[in-house]
């Protein structure tokens, strides 16, 4: 990589295990003082990657704890620096005492994520891998954990890098057409550039779909429940959550604020957002609730629009819902089918009949949500991803679409090359800073020296 981060000169230390009591508690130390800390606390530094049983002593050689010591010399360690692990007993008082001792020896308390940050700065991980570490720890379903593990092992980074190589190779080709413009070869005229550009666009769109599935796995599918008051929105939230998270009454206008509930439905992590029933109201508190309901919709992945079975959906009848008409995120639900004997489950028009009260039709709903997440049939995403990655891909897509216009409408190779460069740059943000040296190297190596 062409960016230089000054090597960290200080040594950081932190309790690496979760707070509270546990069988084992781990203190992790990274930096140049690792060996001297080992010598001071346990008497010697054990051979690399070998567990040694030792007493952990304070400044007066009194034992604070005892346990295993592990030493990982840099650069072949998690952070790329010398790393020491003290694995003692998992009590908060002992761990605090050992940490205090380590800090007395000249270490600094690590900030959140600082070990992984050092791993990134020392090129042990790229940016999206570093993010996958956090996603793996935060994973609330097995599918999410597996996807994060694949990102961590580089599956996502490799996809991005491979795509950037394709992009670079096309750009090299276009730059050549500019350099050779005075000769008789017209690189743009033979349709080769247009063909390769359209393949690139297809590949990037496919990568976007996969990244979005990865994002849903990592962050959860955001599912908003909207509809007229009293149709059973909060009842649905409670049924899916498996407990009474929301207040349910027969009084219309019960829910005032937006309620959030994270649930795992058949391995799919879902953030459920129960909103106030949307209607025109004079009640100032309910009005705020309705406004919040609308605000919630903006970044929802799926919008469940609930109506009473047999009653027209608010989407058609209520002007308040006008802006949702035709929105691809919509999924229509007809609740209280027990009162109408209406069809429960998936209907021909793609809507779903439910009786939340009797727990009917929920399977069909969960299946539909899996489908929306792109995870139907048990197929899981190849990797985990984040909104940041999706944003970068969207900007790269815009760059490529712009490039297509430069080519087809303006026939301007310089501007085309610029747009390809832009797309490459924004994609570079996904794994880490870009290196212009790479581009130069690629251009020079693929053309003969004679020119
Ligand atoms: N018969 C029948 N009643 C239901 C069903 N689902 C919910 N209800 C009842 O409908 C009433 C309203 O339910 P809620 O879940 O509070 O409705 P809501 O849409 O959240 O209402 P607001 O928060 O006021 O917008 C309650 O009395 C529920 O018990 C159902 O499937 N069948
Ligand atoms: Mg409610």
From TrEMBL:
Gene Ontology molecular function terms on file: GTP binding; GTPase activity; metal ion binding
Domain TrmE-type G: 220-374
Keywords: Cytoplasm, GTP-binding, Hydrolase, Magnesium, Metal-binding, Nucleotide-binding, Potassium, tRNA processing
Cofactor note: Binds 1 potassium ion per subunit.
UniProt cofactor(s): K(+)
CDD domains associated with the record: trmE (cd04164), TrmE_N (cd14858)
Residues where GTP binds: 230-235, 249-255, 274-277
Binding positions (K(+)): 230, 249, 251, 254
Binding positions (Mg(2+)): 234, 255
Class of enzymatic activity (EC top level): hydrolase
Superkingdom of source: Bacteria
GO cellular component: cytosol
Binding site for (6S)-5-formyl-5,6,7,8-tetrahydrofolate: 28, 85, 124, 451
Documented EC number(s): 3.6.-.-
One of the GO biological process terms: tRNA wobble uridine modification
Family: Belongs to the TRAFAC class TrmE-Era-EngA-EngB-Septin-like GTPase superfamily. TrmE GTPase family.
Stated role: Exhibits a very high intrinsic GTPase hydrolysis rate. Involved in the addition of a carboxymethylaminomethyl (cmnm) group at the wobble position (U34) of certain tRNAs, forming tRNA-cmnm(5)s(2)U34.
Matches recorded under PANTHER family: TRNA MODIFICATION GTPASE GTPBP3 (PTHR42714), TRNA MODIFICATION GTPASE GTPBP3, MITOCHONDRIAL (PTHR42714:SF2)
Subunit and interaction comment: Homodimer. Heterotetramer of two MnmE and two MnmG subunits.
Matching NCBIfam families: mnmE_trmE_thdF, PRK05291.1-3, small_GTP
Protein name per Swiss-Prot or TrEMBL: tRNA modification GTPase MnmE
Species the sequence originates in: Abyssibacter profundi
Gene: mnmE
């Amino acid at each position: 990589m062409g960016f230089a981060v000054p090597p960290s000169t200080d040594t950081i230390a932190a309790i690496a295990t979760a707070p509270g009591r546990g069988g084992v508690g781990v203190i992790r130390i990274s930096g140049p003082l690792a060996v001297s800390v080992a010598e001071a606390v346990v008497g010697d530094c054990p051979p690399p990657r070998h567990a040694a049983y030792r007493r952990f002593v304070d400044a007066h050689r009194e034992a604070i704890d005892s346990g295993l010591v592990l030493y990982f010399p840099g650069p072949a360690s998690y952070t790329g620096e010398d790393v020491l692990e003290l694995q003692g007993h998992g009590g908060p008082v002992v761990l605090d005492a050992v940490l205090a001792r380590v800090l007395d020896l000249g270490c600094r308390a690590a900030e959140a994520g600082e070990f992984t940050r050092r791993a990134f700065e020392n090129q042990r991980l790229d940016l999206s891998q570093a993010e996958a570490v956090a996603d793996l720890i935060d994973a609330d379903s097995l599918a999410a954990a597996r996807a994060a593990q694949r990102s961590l092992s580089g599956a996502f980074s490799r996809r991005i890098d491979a795509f950037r190589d394709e992009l670079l190779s096309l750009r090299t080709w276009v730059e050549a057409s500019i350099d050779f413009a005075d000769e008789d070869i017209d690189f743009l005229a033979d349709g080769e550039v247009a063909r390769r550009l359209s393949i690139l666009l297809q590949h990037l769109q496919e990568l976007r779909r996969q990244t979005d599935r990865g994002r849903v796995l990592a962050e959860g599918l955001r599912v908003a429940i909207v509809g007229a008051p009293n149709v059973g929105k909060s009842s649905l939230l409670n049924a899916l959550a498996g407990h009474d998270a929301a207040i349910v009454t027969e009084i219309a206008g019960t829910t005032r604020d937006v309620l959030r509930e994270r649930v795992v439905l058949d391995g799919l992590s879902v953030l459920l957002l129960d909103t106030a029933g949307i209607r025109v109201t004079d009640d100032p508190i309910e009005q705020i609730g309705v406004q919040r309901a609308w605000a919630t919709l903006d970044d929802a992945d799926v919008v469940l629009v609930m109506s009473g079975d047999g009653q027209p959906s608010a989407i058609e009848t209520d002007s308040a819902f006008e802006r949702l008409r035709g929105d691809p995120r919509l999924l229509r639900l007809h609740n209280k089918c027990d009162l109408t004997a209406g069809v429960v489950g998936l209907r021909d028009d793609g809507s779903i009949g439910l009786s939340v009260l009797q727990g009917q039709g929920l399977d069909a709903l969960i299946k539909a949500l899996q489908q929306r997440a792109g995870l139907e049939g048990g197929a899981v995403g190849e990797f985990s991803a984040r909104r940041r990655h999706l944003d970068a891909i969207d900007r790269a897509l815009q760059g490529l679409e712009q490039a297509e216009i430069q080519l087809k409408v303006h026939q301007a190779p310089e501007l085309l090359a610029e747009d390809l460069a832009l797309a490459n740059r924004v994609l570079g943000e996904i794994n880490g800073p870009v290196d212009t040296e790479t581009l130069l190297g690629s251009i020079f190596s693929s053309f003969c020296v004679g020119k």
